[in-house]
Amino acid sequence: GALVYQYPRRTICKSGTSMRMECQAVGFQATSVAWYRQSPQKTFELIALSTVNSAIKYEQNFTQEKFPISHPNLSFSSMTVLNAYLEDRGLYLCGARLGLSAETLYFGSGTRLTVL
Amino acid sequence: GDSVTQTEGQVALSEEDFLTIHCNYSASGYPTLFWYVQYPGEGPQLLFRASRDKEKGSSRGFEATYDKGTTSFHLRKASVQESDSAVYYCALSDPGGNNKLTFGQGTVLSVIP
User: Fold this and answer.
1) What is the pLDDT of residue A100?
2) CA B7 – CA B21 distance, rounded (Å)
3) Shortest distance, CA B103 to any CA of chain A (angstroms)
4) Cβ–Cβ below 8 Å for B101 and A95
5) Which pLDDT tens digit goes with each residue over B51-80?
6) Which of A8, A19, A20, B42 has a Cα-to-Cα distance from A82 of 20 to 30 A?
7) What pLDDT digit, counting tens, does each position of B74-87 carry?
8) Residue B107 at interface with chain A, using a CB cutoff of 8 Å
9) Interface of A with B (CB under 8 A)
């Protein structure tokens, strides 16, 4: 079945520093990758959608300058949280689609970010 | 914009009870509807999906029927088990909206043995 791995599972960073998280699709080609943040209150916010051969589309309130994303091939994506502060804490989830027209997102276990 | 509303924030049941979690949606197009389940420390896992009016999705004893008339996709299970304790999310994907997945607020299900 479709598997999505995210690492690290947990990370702690000091306020004002940056951290990078990675997302690996195993057993399928991730033509589309969506990065979400799940707040401590459990709500989901879409950060950006990255589709192969297309520009990365960021949602309102999220910018490339703050959350740069790389999607160099069909099995790997990474996102960095730059200059992290308390409000950036949460569970960062990577969801991948199997094909360009596919609608189902398969999620990894997430990277939990704690900011001190 | 698109939205998903789950009526119940928390549900507490005993084993073998009947479960209903209400989900209503609002979308401009003809969305695909999903139920995801999230266990502690994990990302959301797809339970099932439905793409057409009157289509029933089902998995592991859970089921929901796409109802375009009432814009609903209520989750039901006839007899819950302790292992079903988790957070359940209703979601929609609107093809006209770049297939963006919009989640409901989630329902915490606690099943007491």
Assistant:
1) 62
2) 7
3) 7
4) yes
5) 999 999 999 999 999 999 999 999 999 999
6) B42
7) 999 999 999 999 99
8) no
9) 4, 6, 32, 34, 42-44, 46, 49, 57, 91, 93, 95, 97, 103-110
